[in-house]
Design brief:
278 residues, 2 strands, two-stranded antiparallel sheet, mainly alpha
């Protein structure tokens, strides 16, 4: 009997569902790209970024197979951002979207909803996804790699969700930034702003890393720091999406970032409520 065959049926169904979702992401992206009336630089960047999410689904499969507690927030982030990343490519700049693309997107949405429902609502899945990552520990036999619970207080799922959602800020800023470089041929005066956009997109990842380091350790002010950092990211990114990429760019590239920001704020709010009641 294989390890997978010995697992509960719900976890095996979840693994199969994740594989199907990863495959559907690739199929729908390739379909949208082939049906697009024009294959410009912006579409190539957005399609490439969406395809990279397949690696995220493969990582999630690995986390589920190892019963990691981080699988639940990771699955929620992937489901939400995948729907936005793929959905922004279904609708063309003009005219109606192709029927195969709409049908594929609808299937992908159903798969993402099913993933989230299994991760958060199924009791067997919730019971099994509780393990911590393996760490090097000192035992009587020497140094060994085994599961080790963190020494600090247990981290709530909402804090992990806020952490993972905030880590998507940097790539979600860099995608429209890279697309904007293709628009500088007609608007070279925007080059300093785009270069600063690129620097801030990279710098935000370090700012989020610093904030979440203290967030997971329960430091006072870490939630406010991450909340105000989210405000700064939106205040910088959304106007540039509008001025450089137009309304189309604001919807296609600003909406996924706004969704990640709202999820971060909601997770921080729920984590604060859990801390007060705890």
């Amino acid at each position: 009997m294989t390890i997978e065959a010995g697992r509960p049926r719900a976890l095996r169904a979840l693994t199969a569902l994740l594989i199907a979702t990863a495959a559907a992401t690739v199929v729908v992206e390739v379909m949208n790209y082939s049906y697009a009336p024009e294959h410009g630089f912006g579409l190539a960047v957005r399609t490439g970024w969406a395809l990279l999410r397949t690696l995220g689904w493969l990582l999630l499969i690995r986390q589920v197979r190892r019963n990691r507690a981080a699988a639940r927030p990771l699955g929620l982030i992937l489901a939400v951002t995948t729907v936005f990343a793929v959905g922004r490519l279904v609708v063309p700049r003009s005219g109606l979207p192709p029927l195969p693309g709409v049908a594929g997107f609808a299937v992908l949405v159903l798969l993402c909803v099913a993933v989230v429902a299994l991760l958060y609502r199924h009791p067997v899945v919730r019971e099994h996804l509780v393990r911590h990552p393996n760490r090097l520990v000192l035992t009587r036999s020497g140094v060994a790699l085994q599961e080790a619970a963190p020494r600090r207080a247990p981290v709530t799922g909402w804090l992990l969700t806020a952490r993972l959602a905030a880590f998507t800020y940097s790539p979600l800023m860099l995608v429209p930034c890279l697309i904007s470089f293709g628009e500088l041929r007609d608007r070279p005066e925007w080059l300093p702003a785009v270069l600063l956009w690129l620097a801030l997109g990279i710098g935000v990842s370090y700012a989020v890393l610093l904030g979440t380091f203290f967030l997971l350790r329960g430091r006072a002010g870490a939630r406010r720091y991450l909340g105000w950092l989210t405000v700064f990211v939106l205040a910088w990114d959304l106007p540039l999406c509008y001025f450089l990429l137009g309304v189309d760019g604001l919807i296609r590239d600003g909406a996924p970032l706004l969704a990640a920001a709202l999820l971060t704020w909601y997770a921080l709010h729920r984590a604060a409520g859990a801390a007060e009641t705890g």
